[in-house]
Design goal:
By secondary structure, the chain is mainly alpha-helical. Helix content is 76%, strand content 0%. The protein has 8 helices and no strands. Helix 1 runs antiparallel to helix 8. The longest helix has 31 residues. The chain is globular and about 50 Å long.
C-alpha cells in the first residue's frame, strides 16, 4: 500500500462522515420545522436528506477496510437497504406505518444474521434476556393505547428488535478482549441506539407527544446506523 493511499483513505472517510452529519442534520431540521400536512420547503428538505443520510451511511459500511468479514459486511449492507426502505415508507404522505415496520423488521433480521456470523445466537443469554425484558416492558406500557390491528405486527417487531439488540450485546461480551472487541462494541452500541430510537418513536406515536420528537428519534437512529456501519471495519477501537 502506497503512502498516498494511507493518507487518502482517512481523509475520504472523514469527508464521508461530514457528509453524513450534514445530511442527518438537514433531515432533522426539515422534519422539525415542516408544517404538518403541508408540502413546504422544510418537508422537501426532509424528504431529500433523510434517505440521503442513510445512503451515505450505507456507503460507509460498504467502503470500510479491512472488514470484519465479507459475510458480515454483506448482511449489514442488506440490513441498511431495508432501513432505507423503512425510511421511505415512514415519510410518505399517506400512513404507511405497517410497511415501514415490515421493512425495518427485515433489516433487523439481516443485522441478526450479521451478528451470528462469528458468534452463536444467545452466546450470553443474560444479554438477550435483558433486551427482551426491556422490549416487553415497553410493549406492556404501550399496550392500552396500541391499535388492535397493530398488536400482532408490533409484538413480532419488538421480539425481533430485542433479539437483534441482545445478540449484538452478547457478541460484544463474547469477544471482549479479542480482535473483534472494538467492532463488536460498535455494533452493540448501534443496536442499543436503534432500540432507543424505536422506543422514542413508539411512545411519541402511541402514548404521548414528545417535544421535538424528530430530533431525538432521528438523532438516535442515524447514530445507530453509523455505529453499525463503523462496526464493519475490523481495526479501530470503540473509543
Amino acid at each position: 500500500m502506497s503512502v498516498s493511499n494511507v493518507v487518502v483513505a482517512p481523509v475520504a472517510s472523514r469527508r464521508l462522515d461530514v457528509a453524513i452529519l450534514l445530511s442527518a442534520i438537514a433531515a432533522i431540521v426539515g422534519a422539525t420545522l415542516a408544517t404538518r400536512g403541508v408540502v413546504d420547503g422544510w418537508q422537501t428538505l426532509h424528504w431529500i436528506a433523510k434517505p440521503l443520510a442513510t445512503l451515505l451511511i450505507m456507503q460507509k459500511a460498504l467502503r470500510a477496510r479491512p472488514e470484519v468479514s465479507a459475510t458480515y459486511r454483506r448482511w449489514i449492507g442488506i440490513g441498511m437497504v431495508f432501513s432505507l426502505a423503512g425510511d421511505i415508507f415512514l415519510m410518505l404522505p399517506m400512513d404507511a406505518f405497517v410497511g415501514g415496520l415490515v421493512a425495518f423488521l427485515l433489516g433487523h433480521l439481516c443485522f441478526i444474521r450479521a451478528f451470528v456470523t462469528d458468534t452463536r445466537l444467545a452466546a450470553r443469554p443474560l444479554a438477550l434476556l435483558g433486551c427482551l425484558a426491556y422490549g416487553l416492558l415497553n410493549l406492556w406500557a404501550l399496550w392500552p393505547t396500541l391499535p388492535g390491528a397493530l398488536h400482532v405486527p408490533v409484538v413480532v417487531y419488538v421480539v425481533v428488535l430485542a433479539t437483534m439488540g441482545g445478540q449484538a450485546v452478547a457478541r460484544a461480551w463474547w469477544h471482549d478482549g479479542d480482535r473483534l472487541a472494538g467492532p463488536a462494541q460498535w455494533a452493540a452500541g448501534g443496536a442499543l441506539l436503534f432500540m432507543l430510537s424505536d422506543t422514542l418513536l413508539a411512545w411519541d406515536r402511541f402514548r404521548f407527544v414528545i417535544p421535538l420528537s424528530a430530533v431525538w428519534v432521528l438523532a438516535t437512529y442515524y447514530a445507530a446506523l453509523w455505529c453499525l456501519a463503523r462496526s464493519v471495519r475490523q481495526s479501530g477501537d470503540f473509543a
